[in-house]
Automatic annotation (TrEMBL), chain A:
GO terms for molecular function: 3-isopropylmalate dehydratase activity; 4 iron, 4 sulfur cluster binding; metal ion binding. It catalyses: (2R,3S)-3-isopropylmalate = (2S)-2-isopropylmalate. This is 3-isopropylmalate dehydratase large subunit. Transmembrane segments: none annotated. One of its GO terms (biological process) is L-leucine biosynthetic process. The gene is dmdA_1. Residues 7-284, 288-412 form the Aconitase/3-isopropylmalate dehydratase large subunit alpha/beta/alpha domain. Belongs to the aconitase/IPM isomerase family. LeuC type 2 subfamily. Catalyzes the isomerization between 2-isopropylmalate and 3-isopropylmalate, via the formation of 2-isopropylmaleate. Its EC number is 4.2.1.33. [4Fe-4S] cluster binds at C301, C361, C364. It comes from the Bacteria. Keywords: 4Fe-4S, Amino-acid biosynthesis, Branched-chain amino acid biosynthesis, Iron, Iron-sulfur, Leucine biosynthesis, Lyase, Metal-binding. The lineage of its organism: Bacteria, Pseudomonadati, Atribacterota, Atribacteria, Atribacterales.
TrEMBL record, chain B:
It comes from Atribacter laminatus. CDD domains: IPMI (cd01583). GO terms for biological process: L-leucine biosynthetic process. Its cofactor is [4Fe-4S] cluster. The gene is dmdA_2. This is 3-isopropylmalate dehydratase large subunit. Catalyzes the isomerization between 2-isopropylmalate and 3-isopropylmalate, via the formation of 2-isopropylmaleate.
């Protein structure tokens, strides 16, 4: 019996010839990251256990991306705690201030996550790096603290579900729609503790940015990880980055065992929207009644990359944001901000009436920079639309791709670019 | 007997001769409210039984203090402003447009000779273009929105005459900080200040705005600069509104005339926690900083970002410093992008935040941690001003802030400007 990519990566990190789904294993980790919400808990846990030396400081990544620039004293104190921990332990991958980008956009950009890696992070969307052919998954702060100290963690090897995407996507259909569509099909628990392996010619049509968006949302179907085989596009992206280690490319065996195999022809997917209050409440935007909005957000670890900004700018060029709508745009990293500026995208945004915000998680989790008031509606390129996620428990969040978020900001209600007058 | 600019503006607004000390009820030309104060004004408006506003074209709301909103409660307050503005057809500048005091002058909403009130202490900024403008409370704003009038005591005026030429590396911020040290934080309480002399003549309108902005830090009701050719050109580029510039009479009577020579002035720094505790940068000693802030209604304009970018060009912000940059308006941000200043600042490691008040008032976007030292281009360094009463704020010019961000300690910018 063969193995899936996920099983192969886990086996390679557990020192075993082979592992199979359901097995409990001890694995070495290549990288364990935490952000400014979760790292302080990890650090305090280590202090509590009186653990002073880390297994390998180069395995540790700290990104202060959630409440940056510090929104209040508590946030500032958390940053201070992280900074002192980084200094004490000589952690060179500590990102704050002007070096901050959204962790899951920043790490691939910096060459810190590679195909074949096993990565854990104290953030649910750590699964993003699966787009590179890495096994990556979110864990709690104490798990991360233990991994920092020991260089390893334990896992149950997940069963794998294979998603075969075929066909050519329609106009304004992106990786976001691929993943929203599938979450709508299988539900938010449809892949619980499973590996979602995305494959097929439909995936090949996506850019790396589109693939990151897909892997990012695997957790929204309950998955342990989302993963794709690294291909020539992956390698060409990596060839432009100074890498910290050597990538290892794994492929699933033809006789690998799958819990399920699901086929999707992407040519039948229309631009998707996830209605409040679950990412599984998806439907085609075309069959949506008129839903007016107060706010639109373009950014996040799901859709804050350069391709996303280009898609938004394509719609916003020579148009004005509807009176009564606030459009917030958060580039994923400082490098993406600079690239967007170089391409004239930032100018398009500002001239359209959009608000440019610093590279950060911003309003995605309701922390700051665009919190929703009671009764307000927001269309957002982020990954979660739970009750109260972006502010008031009586506000509503609709998830969509950057084309839809931009065109809806213009129209004042949820619409696709081709429906704009 | 001659009259000061303040007296002449009030005279024009009430229609009869007035002198300092008179209590008058005057018609106002513009009333401004921001999101820190307007929700209270709206509440007072309702409590006073307000049914309509005196003139929708003379009331402006601006969302700049919490932009974008960091709390549900504040989002609700923003919505109350939006609803009120929509009901009464007022102009509302949304999140991202910029800081209220920059918008009011840059959009040509205030012109020379105007009498303007704003529910914000730094409303005195518009004195730089020859208006009498002053900060009021939220209830006064509510009353003015209903009646179009407000009562004032016509203030006495101090004439501050600034001689000489500013040396390189010394800016209008250094001048006003120096004046704060000389006059004191309550040295001009309920008085108007007229700033005049060769130094004022040499400064651009943008640089003069910095001086008038901080008049309130000397306790002043207004900080006025008589319009000159520069002012008139600047204003006409921004508005078609008719206006009548007001000049002081040659024999105007001032309560005090103060003269300073600025030719030997050096960069100034206000020490925590008072704006008038100011020292020359050379006698400061070593002050290690954790945060540097460039922006605000005092120093968030193009001229400020330009000088900072010049100092930061091809260099890196000190690894232990967070440099936060908030352009004062969207237009300034666009200009800063076009001129390459933003690229310079971001490459240097600065954080660009949304045009607005940023961390100046401690609501979000750069609240310091306990024990931090912050060097800031803002106008106030009171204890807790930036959100943490265990932090220490030093006020300085944009050049000093940029140089300090590079070195991780408060640094004389002049070595970077040779």
């Amino acid at each position: 019996m063969g193995m899936t990519i996920t099983e192969k990566i886990i086996a390679a990190h557990s020192g075993k010839e082979r592992v199979s789904a359901g097995e409990l294993v001890q694995v070495s980790v290549d990288l364990a990251l935490a952000n400014d919400i979760t790292a302080p808990l990890s650090i305090k846990e280590l202090e509590k256990q009186r653990i002073n030396s880390m297994f390998n400081p180069n395995q540790i990544v700290l990104v202060a991306d959630h409440n940056t620039p510090a929104k209040d004293i508590a946030s500032a104190q958390n940053l201070k705690l992280m900074r002192e921990f980084a200094q004490k332990n000589q952690i060179k991958n500590f990102f704050e201030g002007g070096s901050v980008g959204i962790e899951h956009v920043l790490l691939p950009e910096k060459g810190l996550v590679l195909p074949g890696d096993l990565i854990i992070g104290a953030d649910s969307h750590t699964c993003t790096y699966g787009a590179l052919g890495a096994f990556s998954t979110g864990m709690g702060s104490t798990d991360i603290a233990a991994a920092w100290a020991l260089g390893e963690t334990w896992l149950k090897v997940p069963e794998s579900i294979k998603f075969i995407y075929s066909g050519q996507p329609n106009r304004f259909v992106t990786g976001k729609d691929f993943i929203l569509f599938i979450i709508g099909e299988i539900g938010v628990e449809g892949a619980r503790y499973c590996a979602m392996e995305f494959t097929g010619s439909g995936i090949s049509t996506l850019s790396m940015d589109g693939r990151f968006t897909m892997a990012n949302m695997a957790v929204e179907a309950g998955a342990k990880n989302g993963i794709m085989e690294a291909d020539t596009l992956t390698l060409s992206m990596l060839s432009n980055i100074p890498l910290s280690r050597k990538p290892k490319i794994y492929r699933s065996d033809s006789d690998a065992e799958w819990k399920d195999v699901i086929e999707v022809n992407v040519s039948s997917i229309e631009p998707q929207i996830a209605l409040p209050h679950l990412p599984e409440n998806t439907q085609s935007v075309f069959s949506l009644p008129r839903i007016s909005i107060n706010q639109s957000v373009i950014g996040s670890c799901t859709n804050g990359r350069i391709e996303d900004l280009r898609q938004a700018a394509e719609v916003l060029r020579n148009r004005k944001v509807h009176v009564g709508v606030r459009l917030y745009i958060f580039p994923g990293t400082p490098a993406i901000l600079l690239q967007a500026e170089k391409e004239g995208l930032v100018q398009i945004f500002l001239e359209s009436g959009a608000v440019l915000c610093p590279p950060s998680c911003g309003p995605c989790l309701g922390g700051h920079l665009g919190v929703l008031a009671e009764g307000e509606r927001c269309v957002s390129t982020t990954n979660r639309n739970f009750v109260g996620r972006m502010g008031h428990t009586k506000s509503e969040v609709y998830l969509a791709n950057p084309y839809i978020a931009a065109s809806s900001a213009i129209a004042g209600y949820i619409i696709t670019p081709d429906q704009l007058m | 007997m001659g009259k000061t600019i303040a007296e002449k503006i009030f005279e024009k607004k009430v229609g009869y001769p007035v002198k300092a000390g008179d209590l008058v009820i005057a018609r106002i030309d513009m009333a401004m409210g921001q999101d820190g104060t307007t929700p209270l004004a709206i509440q007072s408006f309702k409590e006073m039984g307000g049914k309509k506003v005196f003139d929708p074209s003379r009331i402006v709301f601006i969302i700049d203090h919490n932009a974008p909103s960091q709390l549900e409660a504040i989002s609700m307050l923003h919505d109350s402003m939006r609803k009120f503005a929509e009901n009464y057809r007022l102009t509302l500048f949304e999140i991202g447009c910029g800081v209220c005091h920059e918008i009011m002058v840059a959009k040509g909403l205030v012109v020379p000779g105007d009498l303007v009130i704003g529910a914000d202490s730094h409303t005195c900024t518009y004195g730089a273009i020859g208006a009498f403008s002053t900060g009021v409370g939220s209830t006064e704003l509510a009353a003015a929105m209903i009646s179009g009038q407000l009562w004032f005591k016509v203030p006495e005026t101090i004439l501050v005459h600034l001689n000489g030429t500013l040396p390189p590396g010394v800016f209008s911020k250094d001048v006003i900080l120096y004046l704060a040290s000389q006059i004191g934080a309550d040295g001009a309480t309920y008085q108007a200040i007229e700033f005049a002399g060769p130094i004022i003549d040499q400064l651009s309108v943008d640089e003069r705005l910095t001086i008038s902005n901080m008049a309130v830090e000397l306790g002043a009701k207004a900080g006025i600069i008589a319009p000159d050719e520069k002012t008139l050109t600047w204003v006409k580029q921004r508005t078609n509104k008719p206006f009548e510039p007001i000049f002081p009479d040659p024999n105007a009577v001032y309560i005090k005339e103060l003269t300073y020579d600025c030719s030997t002035l050096v960069p100034q720094v206000a020490l925590p926690h008072r704006v008038d505790t100011v020292t020359s940068i050379g006698s400061l000693g070593e002050v290690i900083i954790q945060e540097a802030y460039l922006g605000t209604c005092t120093n968030g304009r193009s001229v400020d970002i330009e000088i900072a970018a010049k100092i930061l060009q091809d260099k890196k912000v000190h690894p232990k410093v967070r440099l936060i940059v908030a352009p004062a308006s969207k237009e300034i941000l666009l200009e800063a992008i076009e001129k390459g200043w933003i690229e310079t600042i971001v490459k240097a490691g600065g954080v660009l935040v949304t045009p607005g008040c940023g961390p100046c008032v401690g609501t979000h976007q750069g609240v310091p941690g306990d024990g931090w030292n912050v060097v800031s281009t803002a106008n106030r360094n009171f204890k807790g001003r930036m959100g943490n009463n265990k932090a220490f704020i030093y006020l300085a010019s944009p050049a000093t802030v940029a140089a300090s961000a590079l070195e991780g300690k408060i640094t004389d910018p002049r070595k970077y400007l040779r």
